[in-house]
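Sorry to interrupt, but I need a hand with the structure work. Could you add the entry underneath, on a fresh line?
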Amino acid sequence: MNDRHTELALRQTLADLVTRNRKKGGMEVVNAILDHPRSVELIHSMAPEELFTLVVAVGREDCTDLVAHATEEQFQGLTDLDTWKGSEFSPERFETLYAIVRSTEDEAVERFLDSLEDETIALYLLHRVRIVQRDMTPEQEDAFSDELEVMRTPDEQFFLVFPAGDPNTPAVKDLVDRLYSRDNLDAADLLRHVATEDRDTVEAEFSRFRSSRIRTMGFPEQGEIRELLAYYNPVAAKRSIRRRLDALPTLKAATEMPLLPALYGFGPEQIPFLKQVVGTVEDDRVLSLLAEGLAWLANAQIVLATDGDLADEAGRRLGIDQAASLLTLGLEYVAEGDVPLAARILARVRARTLFRIGHSLLIPLRQKAHELVDLAGKEHGLQLFDPPLDDVVRGASLDVPRRALSLDSDKHGFAEFRSLAELRRTRQALLQAREIARFAAEALYLVPESLARSIPEERRLAVTHTTLMATALVNGLLGSESILTPVPAESLPVLLDLVLPVGPEGDRTLNPRLKEAIARFASAGANRFAGALFDLSLRKLEDLFRKFPSGTVPDPKLAAPVLLLQ
């Protein structure tokens, strides 16, 4: 009982150190642990996946003093988590970890070697060296070319064959020498086994055992993740939860202090609704349940975002952010923005249920975006939508849809949906894109394949809906039979006079009749949307022509992004 209390006390101390110092930076967390009077006990109290999370977040080279105290179990966890990319063993990652361990005390190196399974050592050697058992014949001694570097093992039974100048030779030789210094017979048996094994076979078989251990550390398998991300009718789920909420039992309390969520640092301050809800929850048990649930969801999203490369820090951060954001969407949707109700829901509804609701809200968004990607002519190298609609469509079409930052600001890139309001704004933008695509197909008779054939490949991405509308407008002015026929470059002087005619005092002004015609066209309800597009295109033409001094005609190359030009 006392041991249990001691363990919980250590976990509490560690969680407090992480929480207090995380925002200052990873090294502050490491220093706070190392400066504590019971630093070694604190390090040993971490689960292997927690130590791994800290090492990756801070940087491997900066965590040498932490790694120096790792137990065999922690070393095995580090090897399982850090030296694999999905189902493929990474010799480079193994060498990095081994080099860090070798820079510490001999006792740590011995614990590390004790933690390694024969299959891990075999995989590393199979990736880095060819092992040949000696038959002591002169023919074998002379069989190696000058392009190879050949070494003998300490017992003289095997050749280690490397390409000449291989930079990995010292690391391999150090490992082999250490194995022999520990036990000659075991080392020889292992090398004899490696010399006859197929690397791909060993990797495939051992990957299954490793995957099982990864799962016990809280990283779900692909099947579990697919089930988590399956569509879960949000309307029905919301109705059921709201109707039965008071009858639902409170969730079971956590069995130990959840340190991993503290290391992940979900940062509810970045998500307004979650911040509000967490700020009203006074029950530590509820907060602990939320943190544990978020940690598991983050692990699932990390597996998805990194394609199994669990040491990919950018993918880890993306997975963590997605977990918190999707849970928040589900919580806000079920609670309809009611903060006290949301706090009650957290105590009775599992985090993964709320996550599934939040993710399911995005699935229709993704379906709409996929349709728009096809309508935009992507397979033919076209992009129908001008910014920011192009970013909105691209972000919403991702496996886990994301919002386009350019929709709300001049920033570029994507971020997670933090609220239902952001979700609604993106949905409205997709509806606008849908109308543009429909108009291009039905009114402009746009056939992406035919259009692509008439435009040089390097210029196709510049063809957007305003380009098409500007071309249609110009062809109407020029009396062309086809509104989407590429405009002859020699027509640019005529266009200049039509769009920006010379005024009485010699300056050019936008043709008032043209502007009036578009305004009149847009005043009719049925034409309002098309009128807005034409007006946008007219302004695009005006911007183009105003860049040039009076009497100067635009270079066709400069006009190409604005018009379809022959």
Notes: The radius of gyration is 32 Å. The mean pLDDT is 88. The longest helix spans residues 351-375.
